Amino acid sequence: MPVAKVRGVDIRYQIVGDRGPWVALITGGRRAHDEVVPLGRKLANAGYRVVLHDRRNTGASDVLIDGDIAEETLWLDDLHELLKGGVRGKYAE
Fold first, then answer.
1. How are beta strands 3-6 and 49-53 bridged, if at all?
2. Which residues of the chain have pLDDT under 50?
3. Has this prediction a pTM greater than 0.85?
4. What number of other Cβ atoms are within 10 A of residue 4's Cβ?
5. Which residues of 7-17 are buried (b: 16+ CB within 10 A; e: fewer)?
6. N or C terminus: which one in the chain shows less Cβ crowding within 10 Å?
């Protein structure tokens, strides 16, 4: 699984599909992205490129607990950076 350095944290991610509009799937709780892989494959078969990732402090990504920012906000900011510069640019395989 590819790794992107996003805001100082190694984020593990996967892209399913190679054409169409981008979709990001996010798991709930502390679970890794593996639980949404079947849904990601269905979306890819329907013509989408799907980004799956292990958020910081979950799955195979780095653990970093620091500061006063809510973890959900950190996850959103990390995903934004991954999508902005990552899967469509510098992290693309």
1. unpaired
2. 90-93
3. no
4. 20
5. eebebbbbbbb
6. C
